[in-house]
Design goal:
By secondary structure, this protein is α+β, with helices and mostly antiparallel strands. Helices cover 29% and strands 21% of the residues. The two termini are 33 Å apart. The chain binds adenosine-5'-triphosphate and magnesium ion (MG). This is Chromosome partition protein Smc.
Length: 180
């Protein structure tokens, strides 16, 4: 499964609608300090359902919304879409292309969509858990994460291995089942 495209609107420094297309193989994003490289990975994590805003280098939910600049007024909404190539059928949906969208307003209300149909955050998590790219997964490894792995206690380090081995989703389901 390939992340084919990222679409941003009003997310952090991306006030204009921006599309980033990813080809097969490795993509490198280069640019001067502060030009928005890390904001791109933040956008991917955010659209995958990240709930902890500090993991996205913010303090409040609305910190992901374009805050304005000298020449431009702040925006009221941020939206990020991830377009996955699903021709291999990895995601259990009968579509060759699957788009996951998250939108947030200044009020703090979030909306989620799968192929433009409104859904719950839970639906996004369940869809992604199955393929191991859920919110707590190792899909995006930031600089701080590398330090975390190196400094982790044995118990914490075990969680990284469980995640990589795909065990986390079963633990999650067990917890859910026990709660019912
Ligand atoms: P470095 O090379 O230093 O890691 P970078 O390319 O990763 O830089 P980012 O951290 O992605 O840069 O971008 C930081 C920029 O994003 C800053 O200029 C910051 O003001 C801007 N920014 C972050 N949040 C917002 C927001 N909500 N509205 C407008 N701009 C924002
Ligand atoms: Mg950076």
């Amino acid at each position: 499964m390939l992340l084919r495209k990222l679409e941003l609107y009003g997310f952090k420094s991306f006030a204009d609608k921006t599309e980033v297309e990813f080809g097969p193989g490795i993509t490198a994003i280069v640019g001067p300090n502060g030009s928005g490289k890390s904001n791109i990975t933040d956008a991917i994590r955010w659209a995958l359902g990240e709930q902890n805003i500090r993991n996205l280098r913010g303090a409040k939910v609305e910190d992901v919304i374009f805050a304005g600049s000298a020449k431009r007024r702040p925006l009221g909404v941020a939206e990020v879409s991830l377009v996955f190539d699903n021709s291999s059928g990895t995601l259990p949906l009968d579509f060759n292309e699957v788009t996951i969208t998250r939108r947030v307003y200044r009020s703090g209300d979030s909306e989620y969509y799968i192929n433009k149909a409104p859904c719950r955050l839970k639906d996004i998590h369940e869809l992604l858990f199955d393929v191991g790219i859920g919110r707590d997964s190792l899909t995006v490894i930031g600089q701080n994460k590398i330090d975390e792995v190196l400094n982790a206690k044995a118990e914490e380090r075990r969680l990284f291995f469980e995640e990589a081995a795909g065990i986390t989703k079963y633990k999650h389901r067990k917890r859910e089942a026990l709660r019912k």
